[in-house]
Design brief:
single chain, alpha/beta
Amino acid sequence: MRRALLAGVALFVLIVAVVLIRTFNFTPEAPSTVELITHEPDPDVLAQHMSEAIRFKTISTQRPSSSDPEQFEQFIAWFETTYPEVHAAMTRELLGHTILLRWPGTDPNAQPVLLTSHYDVVPVIPGTESLWKEPPYSGNIVDGYVWGRGALDDKSGVIAIAEASTLLLKKGFTPKQTVYLSFGHDEEVSGREGAGAVAALLKERGVQLEWSLDEGSFVLDGLIPGLDKPVASINVAEKGYTTLQLIAKAAGGHSSVPPGRTAVGDLAEAIVKLQNSPLPGGLEGVSEEMYDALSRHMSFAQRMAFANRWLFSGLVESTISRIPAGNASLRTTIAPTMLSASIKENVLPIRAVATINFRLHPRDTVESLMEHVRNAIENDAIEINLVSGNEASNVADTSSPSFAAMKQTVVEIFGDVIVAPGLTVAATDSRHYALVADNAYRFHPVVVGPEDIASFHGTNERISVDNLVRATNFYAQLLINVNE
């Protein structure tokens, strides 16, 4: 008995020692001393150009026929007039209203690269215009901010890339690698006619990019619990986008003599079963790499849990899953979004339909998702209709020289921030460009905080002039770094 007790104590002491040693060794890389770099863009010019860009109502709607092509044409004309150095040094093609520029490099054997953003915007919700502190298409410059739809998503990317290119051209910079600049006109409605057409054209011409850089994440300040530093999340993959319809059918009739179960009841049961059957998740692949980088900067107790996942994996993953954003990083998400059934309150429906939107984690496929849904609802009478199915993207390489250059550039521009790979949970044009890029990265170099999140596709969208300056510096320095 005494031997067993001593053995148990010895085992406990050993486990504690292993846990503590692993925790003390689980630390971030030693910070490197880097002098902040600026290419001295003129803040007033940046703000003015951003303001002018916002005034064009380049709105993408679900029905393309309701968009105003004249606004897109006027933006293209303004862009050419505003950036003459860019258009003098680069060749331009228009694919619909998408602008594709080619900046020839000096090394014909070097793989080209792509910087991209989009200048179309989502509509302002009718009736909410009065909730804006500044009119949504005014581009007003107030208290160090430029206000209006597209300020963050994503005309600021277009402006910063164009301004950075102009600065470099004025300094006599010529890239070794050919640089493509692509500014999409329909990202908010799938990007098929814009980025999709650009990717198809490059593929037809045999162009294979070393890397592409699009929107998809930011420098996140105060948005990740447990961290007291901003996080620059350079996202290396994008979740897939799949929509299914669940359809229940019944005989119909008068609501005064209903059967035991109506089509709506069958459909409701299927939705509840599906939501109660989340897809398997976990810290692996992109998610594991991201949390490995972040958790090294957390408190001792949190580092202990992450450093010893062999012991605490269940606790770690359940804790992350309780936060919607954390849960989305671990698994494919399930979101019922639309319902339709009877045409009148006293008419039993013969058909009830639920629309479910899924964002596919890279570990899942559309086929495996369909199988999961069938097994979860356990009702062969419910029809499952695939409305759209886009697989998750490939995962870009975090050990590549291009990722290292982006990481270096972030530190040179933003200073003491945590740089980590991440997973984009929404859809971007990168899903098209990834077809012709060895590595597709997603990062918009501006700082966003809790107060900014609601403005994406919402009310009071704005961007600080300081952010425009940093973004311009980032793109200029990135092109210098990758060419070195």
